[in-house]
Amino acid sequence: MKRRTWIAGIATLAVATLALTGCSGGSGGGADAMQAHGPITVWYSNNAQELQWGKAMVASWNSTHPKEQIKGQEVPAGKTTEAVIGAAITAGTTPCLVFNNLPAATGQFQKQGGLVDLSKFPGANKYITDRSGASADQYKSSDGDFYQMPWKSNPVVIFYNKDLFTKAGLDPANPKLSTYTDFLATAKKLVSSGAAPYAIYPSPTSEFFQPNFDFLPLYAAETKGQSIIKDGKATINGQAGYDVANFWKTIYADNLAGKDPVQSDVFASGKAAMAIVGPWAIPVYKKVNWGSVPVPTKSGTSAENTWTFPDAKNIGMYTSCKNQGTAWDVVQFATSKAQDGDLLQVTGQMPIRPDLKSDYPDFFAKNPAYNLFASQTSRTVDDPNGPNAIATLQDLRNFYSKAVISGQGDLKSGLDQAAATMTAEWNRK
Amino acid sequence: MTRPGTHPDSGRDGERSQGELERGEVVGARHAPDSSIRTGGSKHPLHIRLFGRNPLGALFSAPYLVFVAIVFAYPLGFAVYMSFFDYFFTAPGAHVNRPFVGLANFVQVFTDPAVMQSFLNVLVFLVINVPLTVVLSIVLASALNSVVHARAFFSVSFYIPYVTASVAVIGVWLFLLNQNGLVNQLLGPLAPDPSWLINPVLAMPTIALFVTWKGLGFYILLFLAALQSVPGELYESAATDGAGKVRQFFSVSVPGVRPATVLVLLLATITGANLFTEPYLLTGGGGPNGASTSPVLLMYQQGIEQGHPGYAAAIGIVLVVFVLIIALLQNRFAGGRE
Amino acid sequence: MMGQPTAIPDQNGTNSAASRPVLRRKRKHRPANSLSRGQTLLRGVVLIIGAFVFLFPFYYMLIGSLQTSPDTTIAGAFPEPGNLTLANYAAINSRIGLLTGLVNSGIFTGGVLLGTVVFGVLAGYALAVLQWRGRDATFALVLLVQVVPFQLLMIPLYVLIARDYGLADNYLGMILPFAISSVAVLIFRQYFMQLPRELFDAARIDGASELRLLWGVALPLVRPALVTALLVTFIGPWNDFLWPFLITKETSMQPLAVSLANYISNVASSAANPFGAILAGACVLAAPVVVVFLFGQRYFISADLGSSVKG
């Protein structure tokens, strides 16, 4: 009886399912859509500064394009952004443009058939490379085309709190932070002197994008710009990968960094004496007396030779867009020299342009704090671009969480294992 | 009208009332003869044999059934279908090769150490959460049921965590359980190191405690309703027999709420097996090193973040099968068999 | 699947008194024998500890939301005049359309409640009281629906509703997946089960129709179930943010939980006092639920199912 009840339930369900499973095809965009003009919807990021820029950009476009009005929405930002966009692609409910695309998600969105191949627009490749120079190359997909418009970056550097350095008896004008040995000694001093509970506090949680703010910037610096995936193989189990992992492992083992999930900004509240962030943080840290230096390397590298992670956000155009012609015009409008200048002015984030300092001399003269970031933009290496990029990064994070943050197991064999897993994941069909 | 108050057992050993007959069917096995009477058939006219005694029931349930078919059956069927393919969600009109892979996804589920760990984690969770939920909610519900003063205050305080969103309360718990949070400050030298949620051994038990705290109000509610339907006469006659309050609790209240207990057991198990929000928000995605990953969290990562919905569906189906097995076992051992 | 859900305590002899229905109706509402002093004390202590454990985090949330700067020490658990501010709330108000959010939440929740009560009562009644072919299968289905995690169904469901039904950015699309709560069906069934059979049999003999029975006899008796189901259902749509997030891209259609969850997880961290901002967001999200709950609670606390049946 009991069993019969269940079988009956499942059978009912199966019948209902069969009755309903009627797959429906859809319609794609195609060449017509690429020519079409008309109103479009865009999403921009929801932090205060980008919102200000986004609204101004939309208003400025709308005032001169009465027949091609843009409707701006805040992007569903946060942990769920990529999930929401992924689902929206499947349902065909994406907007025309998203000004917040994570480069690591591009491969997956592309495989889903969600992204428009921008290189198909006449003159697009030239426009992109003219604007972004060599930095654009890493945002090409495996077929050599651009499925994302390289837009802006936030090159990651080390911020330090000058007041806390002084309190710990360290020289705030010349912080010893360029080699691993110096960095560790400084960090120990900061904590042992009681100046701050933690020397630095990268988010220790397990989301796939967290390596971008601990492992990857240092790995980029140590390898002078190597990606974690090269020719379909993970590269992290070389000497550089070991050194970077070992550096962070020491930080955690000596309790120089917190292992609790961070909720509030620990750098702003003085709980951590250093932070590993990009220029977006400058307006946020108005109250902190901070300085910045490039990320450390094992034997020390001069600022003008240090590589880092760009923390870039790009513009994606989605295939559900009916008026792709307008959308492409808006992309060019929003990445014009004038709009890029506004973006820089309002958000402090770096448009992906090779000659920022000569393009916007006034800004950098008035805001010298941004100079370091501007010079870093040309030496950045982003997450690899492929359909399994997110899963591969998740594998890296799983390894890191276990072997580095918790310090379990042998680092060398852990790296080998992680590299094998990542290679397999990267090439997963 | 008969006096329902005297209902318990008055006619139990004599003739069975119609009502009991009907109820017997729900768990048939208990009253095997009943079901044979019902299915005996020849006694009833054709329309009863075809549609049952109250065909109206089907009509009453129809909206629900339609609803299930629309928002549940189709996606579930789709999930089952996906689990046999290397599936990939695509934009309307886009074409991607989605090969049939047979049982490969399922083989991977059973060989993936991360999946194994997540299932073990859920087991740890259930072992802590389910008994704690059942015991605490029954104790608090009976205390609440008998209290006269400040009853409203107590019930409100018990239900409030249940009615507020996880997003809202998780912030404050993170704050409390932090390395330097209030809980550790109070514990002083007894504070665990590493702290609660970042301790591989304590992360899952802490989540289990949090979920117990959060959900207890609902189960207290269920038990309270069940307790209120236990006729007062039973307590009185137990008292006449010289049973003290504690004895009454075990000999009248506990058996009296057994149906509710089975329901609570089942719901707590299901909720536990479908654990997602708490590890997602409390331990930042299943840390430390996977010690608090749940199968549903893995499904979310694989299916929604990483673009392997076929594999995610396979994990989900294995999970559903496990929960069904556990539910059946629970029913067998706690379901009121003599 | 479920255990025999009779309202009758089991008859396996553990409770010999049950076979002797000694009726002393005069003392119905009083405990048969009162608790000893020690037991009363123990009960009080249990309840007070319980209340403290349940309420303290909320108190702490409120305090934290009013602080100018976060204070994790034990002293931080007490209000300190110099460290109190409403700035955290002002920050939310300036960033989020609280009123639109509230209206959207109201529409979303109201739709769900309507569906759940009307169709849930019908289904619960059919499952508990009526005898019809397919009842067991339907009941199994109710349970099966519970067992399957929402994340397994989410994207197919989203595609179905957004693409095939075209209900993106539509209140109906928001409501549909929650339109009937299976938990509510279970609750209704559970309560209807506990009503004595004789009640229905007698009314049926009197010639009452099933609908009349349900409306006139059964429903008034399960008023606590109604309130319980309402409350249990209410919190679902009110608190859920993933689904409305997926289905509504229009900010003007987003329920409060979506905008506040967004505020808590993204915007708050750049506020002047991020922690206070997060907790203030949490308080705003929790407040309407707590208010509704405070109004609703007297129904299921005062409604004594046992006595109303005996009436």
TrEMBL record, chain B:
SUPFAM superfamilies: MetI-like (SSF161098). Residues 9-25 have a biased composition (Basic and acidic residues). One of its GO terms (cellular component) is plasma membrane. One of its GO terms (biological process) is transmembrane transport. Residues 119-330 form the ABC transmembrane type-1 domain. Keywords: Cell membrane, Membrane, Transmembrane, Transmembrane helix, Transport. It is a multi-pass membrane protein. It is found in: Cell membrane. The chain crosses the membrane at residues 56-82, 119-144, 156-176, 196-227, 257-276, 310-329. Pfam families: BPD_transp_1. Residues 1-40 are annotated as: Disordered. CDD domains: TM_PBP2. Belongs to the binding-protein-dependent transport system permease family. This is Sugar ABC transporter permease.
